[in-house]
Target: Peptide-N4-asparagine amidase
Amino acid sequence: MRAWGLRHRLGVLGGAAVLLATALGTLGTAGAGTATAADAPVETGYQNPVTALPPVSRPPTPHCTVTVMRNDFGNTISSPPYTGTVTPPESCPGPWTKVVLDWSGTVQGRQYDRLAGVWIGGAEVLRTSTPEPTADGISWHLEKDVSSYIPLLRTAQPLAVSLGNVVNSTYTGVYRMTLTLTYYQADRQHPAARTADQVLPLSSDPAGAGWYSLGPGQSAVKTVTLPRNLTGVQLEVYARGGGCDEQWFDSVPSDLAARYPDYLCGGGAYREVQVSVDGRPAGIAQPYPVVYSGGIVPTLWRPIPAVDQFVTQAYDLDLTPFAGELVDGKPHTFTLTPYGAADTWTVDGTLFLDTDHGAARTHGALSGDTLTLSPAVSTTETPVGGDTTEVRTTAQRDWQTSGWLQTSHGRVVSTVSQHAVYRNTDAVSSGGQRQRVAQQEYGATTVTTSHDTARGTGRGATRGAARPSVVRHAWSYPVTVDSDVPLYTDGDNYSLSATVSQGRVLVDSVRSGNRWLPTAVTDDRVDATGVLARTGGLTTAADGTDSEHYLGSTDTGDCYDRSITAAHGYVTADRLLRCDRHTLAAVATPSG
Model:
C-alpha cells in the first residue's frame, strides 16, 4: 500500500488529490531540511482561508447580481453534475463592461479536498478545488472576471457544476456552495468589454460537465466547424493531474519507483500539454505545479492556500497561424494531450474566435511549423553517497508557427514563437521516504502580427506595410520541496513533515522600439512548513506555518503589494503596502 493511500484513507488529502506521500510536491527550500513532528503542538482548527491575491475590480455602474446555483454537494462522487440555466437579467440587459463570477462555500466535519468546475454553454469558466474542513467548519470565497465569455452570456445557456464528493460515516463534510454572476452595465466611462466575436467550447459535453479524464497516452479530441471569415483563433486550455500525477513534478523514473513502491511514483517528472490542429502540432503549454489543500502535508495550507489551489489559471495558446487552414467550411479536429502522463489528467478547452466584420470570407494558409510532439527530455540517475540517488531531468523547447490571412483590411501574417526551459533535480533517500525537489519551468511566447494593407483598386492600387505588433507572455514557475515520511507503519501510526516554497511569475509585454513595455505583471510566492503525526490512532502533531507575498498589477493596471503570514492555522500579520509602476519594473523585466 502506498503512503499516499494512507493519507487518502485518513482524509487528509483530497479526492481530487489522490496523491503520494512523496507528493510533497510544490514547494520548499531544497536542502533546508524539513520541519519535524517532535515536540510540535497539535493544531485543532484553523481560520477561514485567506489569500494575498488582489480582488477583482467592480465598476461603479448599475449592476445586477443573479444567483445561478445554490446547492449542497453531499455524496455526489458518482452523480451527474448540478445543472441549470444562466439567463441574462432583464434589469441589466447589456452591453456589459464586466461580468464577475463569485463562488462561495462552507463545509464542516471531515472531508477530502475536491476538484470542481463550472461550465456555461459548454465552456469551462471556472476550475477550482476545495479546502479541507475543520470540525467546527470553515467558509471561503473566490471571484473571477468572466467577461471574456460575454458572447455566450448574451443568451440563455445551460449551466453545469461538478463537485464530486463522498459522504459516509467517516467523511461527513458536505460542501454547501453558492454561485452568482454580477453583470455591470457599460457607460461612457466604462465601455463595453472587448471580447472575441465567438466562444466555441471544445468540451466533451456541450450542456454538462465537459472535462476529459485522460489516462496515460490518451488525448482529448474534438471536431468542430469554424466561421469562414476568421481573423484570429485563441485557445484556452485547462489541465490538472490526478493520482500519481497530482504532484507530477516529484515523480521519479519508473525503475527507481519500483524499488520503493510504498513512497514513490514513476513516469518521471516532465509533463507538457500539447495541442494539435488536424494532426499538425500547434502549441505547447508548461503546466503549473498545482497542489491541493490536502497535498503533501495538509497543515502546510492552513489558512493560506497554495498558488493556483483555489483559482486555477488556464493556459492561453494563439492558434492564429492556423486560421487560413480553418476557414474552408469543413470540420477540423483539435487534440489536447497531456504528454508524459503517468496517471489521470483532467483536460478541457475553449476557442475564442475573431471574425472579419468587412467580409464574409477570408482565406490563407499555414506557412511554417517547426513544432514537434516529441520533446527531447534528458534524465539521469546518480548515486551521491549513502542511499541517496539524485535524479536530474531537463528539457528545452524552441519552436515557431507562422501563417497568413487575406482579409478585408489586407494581408495579415501571424507568427508565434516559444522558448521554454525545464529543469528538475530530485534527491531521493531513506528508501524513498525523503525527497528534496527543486524545479524550474520558465519561458516566453512571442506573437508577431504584420499587416500589409491595400488601398484602392486596379492600376491605382497601393500597398503599405504597417509596423508589426509584437506581444510577449513570459512565465516562471519555481518550486522547491523538502519532504520526509520518517515513520509509516499504518493509518494509526505515521509521521509526515515538509518545507515547501512555490512561485508564479507572469509578465505580459508589448514591444515598443527596442524595449518591452509591461502591460500586466504577477509575482505570487507562497512558503510553508507543516507536520502531521499519529500514534496509536491519536493525533500527536499537527502544525504549520504559512506565508504569501503578492506583488503585481491589478486588473485595472494599478500596483498591488500584499503580504500575509500565518502560524498554527491563524493569520499573524497582513500588510498592504504602497507601490507603483516603478516597483513593478524589476518583476516585469523579461527573462529567457
